[in-house]
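Troubleshooting entry. Yesterday's outputs looked truncated, so today I'm pasting the complete records for two proteins to confirm everything comes through intact. If either block looks cut off, that's the bug. Protein one:
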Amino acid sequence: MREDQWRNVWQRRVLMSSPYVDPFDGVESSEPAAKSKRPSKETIPLSFHIQWPLMQIGNALSGMVNGYKRLFKMSDSDLKAMYLKQAKSMNQKGDTKKCVEFLENVVRIDNRDADIIYRLGVAYEKNGQPDSAIKAYKKVISLAPDNAKAHYRKAVLLIKKQDYENALTDLEEAIQEKPDSAELNFRLGQVNDRLKNYDKAIEYFTRAVELNPQFLAAFKNMALTYDSLNDHEGSLKCLKRALEIEERN
């Protein structure tokens, strides 16, 4: 056998007896290198692509469940504070409906908090629910009879409904707490005028403009009351004063 033939036989024996080492797992293989297929580092199993969205949904649901668990564990005071914060945010955004809903949630937690019920009444007014507002103010008054603000706002709504007798009762309660309020004196003048208590109305209107000399509405209403008393001179004086205020403004 020639030398080159012996060399070829020797090389084949060396190749067949040398083990193949897989560089990815470090395990020796008896398979020759030519029969091995190297896996790609970039290959990601199809099952992972399928399971990934499900894993994400599972994580989201888990977060929601944990959130609800924390919510149910919250104390009444914490829930109340949370709803009040949301109500304030909705009020600032002008979303009166949502503001009402959050305040109603607060009242369900604590129906003895006169201040919160008063705020609910104001929210009802803003949301165009005068009857609900009146009901809320009545509740406030039952809890805090000296709450002048509740008496006043209830009275204004009753004036709009032309329920002057009940409006007068509320205003008389309110004025005891705030005797130096120009607004309350004006409203008492207004109600007494509607009830044809003209002299009493003049007293309250006069007091209102003493407390606030720029009270345009009080001068205009007082002019009409003087006219009802056939006091045309008094009516003319009030109208002139009203015109002066309007010209300045």
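Protein two, checking that the full record survives here as well:
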Amino acid sequence: MSVDKSGPGLCLIAAKITEPHLLSARQLSKWYEECHIPRLMATGGFSSMLRGAAADLDNGAYPFVSIYAMPDISFANSQAFKLNIGPDHPVDHELYPLPDGAKISDVVEIDFRIYRRITDCHAGGRVSNEIKAFALVEGDARDSSRSEAVSKVEFEQGFVPFIKTIPSAVHWERYVLEMEWWSAGGCLYNRDALDFYGFAEEEPDYAGNFEKLMAHPGAPRLEDFNFEIKTYRTMYTQQADHVK
């Protein structure tokens, strides 16, 4: 697996506990915050990150999501990325031994994606500590010939003017998929485009805001797209001490 392009983007890692009798959601959070996240942030390839849980934990195929802002997605080709992105690491087993000698990968399914940003920078190249809740809208045009340039104009002219009217909105950008991998079964996202909206309040009116967004004169016609919206509450954030 490799990323052929460069530029700013996101690394999105989604997780689902498959053996809850061996690993609880609280234990998974502890492992993330004390092992996996510090290890990734120490590589210098990420400027910031946030971790969230699905608004409805019982209704999410992958209810836990971590988002890492990448100044350059080509970092995904580096040894530092490849050695640290996986769920199994010798130090983890020593700090957090699981019953029956199980590894994290034995009890958690992982889906990770690398996305490249195609719109203007509306968040300073980071995911803000202010984000209390966020929405991920994944989709694609039914017309496969639609270009990135068209998608960017559509977002900047049709979506951004409305998003800026929402007082709690602090992040709004569009990305395209560059690399994907999942450990088992299906995957979190099957489409090539991802919109990331972050809000500085815990329970924004997702449904109402999205209806208003799509009613904007510059918004695309819904019948021209396949899309799905997933909502999360923020559980943890971190800013990098240094970025390569």
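Both blocks look complete. Sanity check on protein two: Residues 12 and 67 are 5 Å apart (CA to CA).
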